[in-house]
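ok so i was messing around last nite and threw this chain in just to see what happens. nothing serious, just curious
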Amino acid sequence: MPCCNRRRALLAAGSPGLAAGRTPPPARGLPGTDRPGTDRLAVGEIQLHFTGSRRVRVEGVVSGRVYHASPTAPVITASPQDVRSLLRSGLFTRIAPG
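result:
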């Protein structure tokens, strides 16, 4: 079951985990998604470099945030919650700070 359908099913069933304890993922296009001009990092965010050859849209496993990356815009700013899973995907490498 895709993640959106699973969330809808949990909400419909009255799951307290989604309804009460979690905030919805941020809207698309906020800082941290791959957009030109987002050169300032929010506190705790980490920059990753996309190594793939085609455009991708990846949803963060923990935060639910949507990341867009492509060979022409390879740098994304990720939530620290999602960094581990993004690196494990093999599509990203960590950019050294500084």
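not much to say yet. The mean pLDDT is 77.
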